[in-house]
UniProtKB/TrEMBL annotation:
Family: Belongs to the binding-protein-dependent transport system permease family.
Name of the molecule in the record: Peptide/nickel transport system permease protein
A GO biological-process term: transmembrane transport
Keyword Membrane: yes
SUPFAM superfamilies linked: MetI-like
Keywords in alphabetical order: Cell membrane, Membrane, Transmembrane, Transmembrane helix, Transport
Domain ABC transmembrane type-1: 107-321
PROSITE patterns, per database record: ABC_TM1 (PS50928)
Cross-referenced Gene3D superfamilies: MetI-like
Subcellular location per the Swiss-Prot or TrEMBL entry: Cell membrane
Transmembrane segments: 12-31, 111-132, 144-168, 194-213, 251-278, 298-317
Chief subcellular location: membrane
InterPro entries: BPD_transp_1_N, MetI-like, MetI-like_sf
Amino acid sequence: MLKYTLNQASRALTTLLIVLVATFALTRVAYRDPAAVLAPRNADQQTLDGITRALRLDEPWYLQLWHYLYRGPDIQGAEMGLFHWPPALGYSFRQQRPVTELILEKIPATLSLALGAVVLWMALALLFGVLAARRRDTWVDHGLSVVSYTGLSVPTFLTGILLAYFLYFKLSTYGIRWFPSGGYVPLTEDPAQWARHLLLPWLTIALAEIGVFQRVVRAHLLDVLGADYIRTARAKGVSERRVHFDHALGAALNPIITLGGLELAALMGGAIVTEQIFGLDGVGRLAVEAAVGGDFPVVIGTTVLAAAVFVVSTFAVDVVTRLRDPAGVT
């Protein structure tokens, strides 16, 4: 097990390093004159050249990458260097602040959105999947199939717009204000308002994901329900509820955990649309504004963050599924 964990950790770090190098090189191609972004308006060529030399932007990209990883030139007193302690992801040319500080400021909203959506869709998908397996080929199974395929077919942005239109705008015209139009309230400030402001964004993401998970849960449950130990449990008089939730669901969890980990990792990068629709000031919104404004240190920082979340999630999923497999723990 130790050897397996070390191999997985090595693969994860290699993946992260490749993503970092590729992102760094691509931003150097896409943003050719970063000194002009950093310089004040109407700056002359001498000023631009001074900024370029100070930040070593005139050096080859691989030397700039070296400075990015190790201790590079401090910018306006902010320490640089990803591998330095504390790690620094660069300096935002547009916002004149360290990228690490910007991400730490935005990440509570994105984490609240992603983790809340995962909890909601996993709970509903497990419930609907077990229900569909227990009522196989009945109107309940067919009805849940229709719900699944509908959720999969409608784009996330359209689901978000429809939810905002009907549950905020239309209800507001009748004086019912159950849901806010957008915004984010920190959990530590007011838990009730935190959940109220995030309920529609959670639903937007969950409706798109429930379909996949519900069908996966149903398919694996039906496979497990044909096993000998399930027939033995039924022969001993174990209730159908315990057979499905305690025996069959536990055995079918590995593929569900794997898919859930991958979806959570993808969600950290895909929450951009939902954040834009509901006005959540998260990492996705920060990344979009940086990409449009040419603030490439922020683009690199947010990309590295998304890649790190993906790598850590898949690593955790691999280890957990290995531990749940009795043949894999040696």
